[in-house]
Amino acid sequence: MQWKNWAVDRKDRKALTGDDLLKFINEELFPGLKNISICENTPMNKIIVKEVFEDSNNFMKMEFCFVK
User: Taking every pair of C-alpha atoms in the chain, what is the biggest distance, in angstroms?
Assistant: First the structure.
């Protein structure tokens, strides 16, 4: 799931864009980050990534109301 493995445009016309990028993010990236395995030896940065993405999909679907 490392950025350098999927987001870098190497000028080989294989960089993900448009619908392919959205599909990857929704079906592979977010679920993969959400389901990171955690154990007692897991580094804190990995734990934080998992916790951030566990609720990210629900958060992005929320509607916000702003009072003027």
Answer: 48
